Amino acid sequence: MKKNVTLIICTLFLMLWASNLPVKAKAALATQNKTAKAIALPAPTQIQETIFPEVISVVAKKIDTVDHKRNGARKSAHAGDLIMVQLLHPKEFLDERPTDQSKLILYADGIELKGISSDLFNGVSKSMVAPTDSIWIPFKLTRDTTTKAAWDCLYRITRWDKTHLGVHVSLGWQGMFPVKVETKYYASTQIDIVFFDQWEFFAWLLLYIVIVTVFIVLAVRSSMLRSCDNGPYSLAQSQLAFWTILIIGSFIYTLILTDITSSINSSILFLLGISISANGTAAYIDNYKKKNKATLEPKPSKGFLTDILGDGETIMVQRVQNAAWTLVLGLYLVYYTISNKTLPTYPDTLLYLTGISSFAYVAGKPAENKRVVKDTAV
User: Is the dihedral of CA 224, 228, 234, 236 positive or negative?
Assistant: First the structure.
């Protein structure tokens, strides 16, 4: 009996142990899985923020203050001054350089100012620059033939009656987009580019008024614009005086703005040459008539417009055409010079048309002046 009881107890103990075995195995397996997952999952990494270069400040200085501090800095720049641009993260900016020979160009309102560049990074490779917070980059605001295209861009976006232009300045590698300027830096990156001082403009304007006044006085009190003493006004001589006055004024205006003495191009010279040739030919024809018709009565003046548009008897179409065409080209010269701050380059077609107009005028002169000859009988 005791043996049976002992056997039953052993059997129950084995059954209880067997029933707990899967639970322990599952617990061990779960623990193993958690350990494996903990080993397999990588540790969370911290995402680094991308750093972009930024332009945060712009100032101007005289050329003799070449330090990169704000001593002597101002917010207006004249030709010949230094424009100092403060750049954040120059190391990242240099990493964007296409090649080690790419030029660093100044930008104004997103417009590339060709020819105005900085030599700061010339000969400097990307590996030679150490990380730093910011750097001042100098640009010399040169105004000559090498930077004429840049200044022409500034002139075109400036009102004709303004002496300066306010722009937001940035920089960039040649052929690429400029560095973006954040809204919060708009005020600090704006600068006024002064084209000329008003006192200088008025001084040259006074000189030009004196020249024009002298021309007018000579035209009224002398025979400078007449075919002879106390005779009628000459279209050819008036045309030559007209072009002379306009070209002198345009040259003075562009010289004040650009400091470039080569603003008079070949088309302007050709136009002036046509006027001189027409005047010389007309004077020769008048002189020839005087020698061969000594008894020809000189025409009296009937007023400036009547004299230059007619021959003393009637209005001549070739004279009207020549005078009208000269006036159109002259007004275009004034408008273009004021709007673009440079003299226009007339296309060959207009120059040919001007030459044809002048030829028509001088070709018709021999048939003019068919007036009654004075009675020389006693």
Answer: negative
Q: From first to last of its 378 residues, what are the pLDDT tens digits of the chain?
A: 545 556 556 555 555 554 554 544 445 445 555 554 444 445 555 555 667 788 888 888 887 654 544 456 778 888 889 999 998 888 888 888 888 788 899 999 888 888 899 888 776 666 666 666 788 899 999 888 888 888 888 888 887 778 888 999 999 998 888 998 888 888 899 999 988 878 888 888 899 999 999 988 988 888 888 877 777 888 888 999 999 999 999 998 888 877 777 778 899 999 999 988 888 888 777 777 777 665 456 677 788 888 888 877 788 888 899 999 999 999 999 998 888 788 889 999 999 999 998 888 888 877 765 544 444 333
37-57 in b/e form (b: 16+ CB < 10 A) is eeeeeeeeeeeeeeeebbbeb
State the pTM of this model.
0.68
